[in-house]
Amino acid sequence: DSGVTQTPKHLITATGQRVTLRCSPRSGDLSVYWYQQSLDQGLQFLIQYYNGEERAKGNILERFSAQQFPDLHSELNLSSLELGDSALYFCASSVRGDTQYFGPGTRLTVL
Amino acid sequence: DQQVKQNSPSLSVQEGRISILNCDYTNSMFDYFLWYKKYPAEGPTFLISISSIKDKNEDGRFTVFLNKSAKHLSLHIVPSQPGDSAVYFCAAIPFGNEKLTFGTGTRLTIIP
Questions:
Q1: DSSP secondary-structure letter at A17?
Q2: Nearest residue on chain B to A98, judged by CA atoms?
Q3: Residue of B46, B100, B106 to mutate, testing the A interface (most A Cβ within 10 Å of its Cβ)
Q4: Average pLDDT rounded to a whole number, residues A72-83
């Protein structure tokens, strides 16, 4: 158990809908990272927050957004969902920005 | 542009023998490297890391070697155990950044 929690574990929705994925980092970790793992793409970095502020952006679509709240939990919002957004979404946290510890992931299925 | 490459998609090793997983990178700005182990439908689990100022780091059965001139790192597992069967990802972080770039993974199967 990495100490990073993610909810929900599974999410099934339809195209065009909007969903929110939630992540709670390890106690004491200020940085939260979001990654997407789709079948043919491997693990891709989406976005990083540090103590409530956006710190780095990767290949995140404009339809996706994230935020980190004062209690340090983070939410990833995915809107206007397309079939191709079906993937595993992982959250990770770190204290120093080197070793990142991953949550169990949320499996999103868009029908 | 795949900056971190794991050229072997799969590897099978007899239980008790050494498993060697390889990783190559192209970005000279990478200065911190990590190995993660992943089971299906679970998040990656951190195994071991190495800074670019070192060429070797050991932790129990796991040793990571870094050859900066060749832009190559490897993970050695000795002795290999059935529970080591999983997908292994190498990852790298560039200097001044915290964004992990992952390789495509190698599926390791330990044969009893």
A1: -
A2: B98
A3: B100
A4: 97
- How far apart CA A68 and CA B12 sit, in angstroms, is 42
Helix (H/G/I), strand (E/B), else coil: A107: strand
pLDDT value of position B98: 80
A65-90 mean pLDDT: 96
**In this predicted model, what pLDDT tens digit does every residue of A13-46 receive, in sequence order?**
999 999 999 999 999 999 999 999 987 667 899 9
Strands A106-110 and A10-13: parallel
Q: Using a CB–CB cutoff of 8 Å, tell me whether B49 touches chain A.
A: yes
The model's confidence at residue B2, banded by pLDDT at 50, 70 and 90, is confident
Rounded Cα–Cα distance for residues A18 and A4 (Å) = 24
Distances from the Cα of B14 to the Cα of A22, A66, A95, B74, B106, angstroms: 41, 44, 38, 19, 16
Q: How many CB atoms lie within 10 A of CB B73?
A: 25
